[in-house]
Design brief:
By secondary structure, the protein is of the alpha/beta class. It has two domains: 160 residues, Rossmann fold (3-Layer(aba) Sandwich); 64 residues, no CATH class. The chain is built from ten helices and ten strands. A hairpin with a 2-residue loop joins β9 and β10. α3 runs parallel beside α6. One of its GO terms (biological process) is L-amino acid transport. Pfam families: ABC_tran.
Length: 244
């Protein structure tokens, strides 16, 4: 078993008057892709935002690399955690290059970007190089998603949180994303990935946690869930086999 990089124990989160997370227990092994699945409204996005400090937890503990944290979002990012929200969060009026520069804490100018890492990103997402000086807001949905993920990877990160990267994308673009994320897996990048595309979940996931009503109700190997249609129906109300 890989060592645990991220651990949530009994985490509760309130947003205004609403109690969203009801004691989340979750472990994310280092160097693996952990899928976070569940029906709409189960609490998956709130879990990612709580880990990132965007919504503070009201109870429980979050440990990263063995240390408890309850810092601000910038301090959490400094520890090497990056977040790709469902909305992607890119700056539409800025070029692809400027979007990546803003995410690079150690670079003040484009010339300061790590050339080797930039070439690695171009290998993952060739469209970045093609549209390097193009306004990010004019890119296709799939290209914007690539920019969003590349921003999170422009500097080495210990943990990548990604929320529904395939949402609204054409199947061919989804396949490109799968291939890029597989390359990240080869480099032992630790990823916690929320995804509704179950073919993508099966292709990428090492471990899986299923949420329901603000709690994690199942954890195990992704392959075991992918092979057990009865378990899929019970936990998710559908069959992965119908989403190939």
């Amino acid at each position: 078993m890989s060592p645990t990089l991220l651990k949530l124990a009994g985490v509760h989160t309130h947003i205004g008057a609403y109690h969203i997370l009801h004691g989340v227990d979750l472990e994310v092994p280092e160097g693996q892709v952990t899928m976070l699945l569940g029906r709409n409204g189960a609490g998956k996005t709130t879990t990612l935002r709580t880990i990132m400090g965007l919504w503070p937890h009201s109870q429980g503990t979050i440990e990263f690399a063995g240390s408890k944290h309850r810092q601000s979002t910038p301090e959490i990012a400094q520890q090497g955690i990056a977040y790709v929200p469902e909305s992607m969060g890119i700056f539409s009026d800025l070029s692809v290059a400027e979007n990546l520069l803003l995410a690079a804490r150690q670079a003040k100018r484009l010339q300061d970007l790590d050339e080797a890492r930039l070439n690695w990103l171009f290998g993952l997402f060739p469209a970045l190089k093609t549209f390097w000086q193009y306004p990010a807001g004019k890119l296709s949905g799939g290209q914007k998603q690539m920019v969003a993920i590349a921003r999170a990877l422009i500097e080495p990160r210990r943990l990548l949180l990604i929320d529904e990267p395939s949402k609204g994308l054409a199947p061919a673009i989804v396949q490109n994303l799968i291939e890029a994320l597989r390359e990240l897996k080869k480099q032992q990048t630790t990823v916690l990935l929320v995804e509704q595309n179950f073919a993508m979940a099966k292709a990428l996931g090492d471990r899986v946690a299923v949420m329901d009503d603000g709690r994690v109700v199942y954890t195990g190997a992704m392959q075991e869930l992918a092979e057990d249609e009865g378990l899929q129906q019970r936990l998710l109300g559908l069959s992965l086999g119908a989403h190939q």
